[in-house]
Amino acid sequence: MAPILSKTLLMTALLTLPIAAAAPALAQEAKPREAVISVTGDGEKAVAPDMAIVTLAVVKQAKTAREALDENNKAMNEVLKALKDGGIAERDLQTSGFSIQPQYNYPQPVDGQQQQPQLIGYQTINSVTVRLRDLAKLGQVIDQSVTLGINQGGDIQFTNDKPEAAIEEARKNAVAEAVKKAKTLSEAAGVKLGRIIEINENVPRAMPQPAYRATMMKEADSAVPVQSGENNYNVSVTVTFAIEQ
């Protein structure tokens, strides 16, 4: 009878092991959740831009693709030479688009019959993106480029070469606003704010947003008036605080 009794005790012990192992987990789940306050803070920093990115293009039309390309090349080479002579570095000049497209004339239908399109020539477009680090020259560069053959484009984006300091300041402002919000909420609820549990910076990353407090740039003799304004760098953070019991 002894061997049978031993087997019974062993089976009983094995069956109780999972229950014993699960006990700490059940106790963990039974523990009440920590009371917290989560707030979002938004911070911004406005700085004057120190760089402009301009897209300039030459568009030429001719009867043959060869003629259109030659005319385009001539004008664009003159523009690039003038830009380089004006102090713009090679690294700040980048071809951003090029195309050769046939041009057609579409005659009106005759007796209700659609007519075949007629090839009338070719169009070439060559565009260059210019990073201009001296904003005082922006209007002059545009004016000179148009004189030399630029006849399309002109999109301007004002930005900052090194925006890290502005973004850091925006982060600090965002956290400060989150702390202020949390204090207001805790005081209104009659509870005491505890330690910070978690801080998350919300995506997307901070990007410059044009501000509308623009001021006219000082230009000596530019024929193209431009305004640089300011860039706003925005950062959003979510901060979670514990509530002291």
From TrEMBL:
Alphabetized Gene3D superfamilies for the sequence: Protein of unknown function (DUF541), domain 1, Protein of unknown function (DUF541), domain 2
Q: Signal peptide span per the entry?
A: 1-27
The biological process GO terms on file are: DNA damage response
InterPro entries in the record: 26kDa_periplasmic_antigen, SIMPL/DUF541
Q: Does the keyword Metal-binding apply?
A: no
Q: Does the keyword Coiled coil apply?
A: yes
Keyword set for this entry? Coiled coil, Signal
Task: Kindly list any coiled-coil regions of this protein.
Answer: 59-86
Which species does this protein come from? Rhizobium esperanzae
The protein's name in its UniProt record: SIMPL domain-containing protein
PANTHER family the UniProt entry points to: PERIPLASMIC IMMUNOGENIC PROTEIN (PTHR34387:SF1), SLR1258 PROTEIN (PTHR34387)
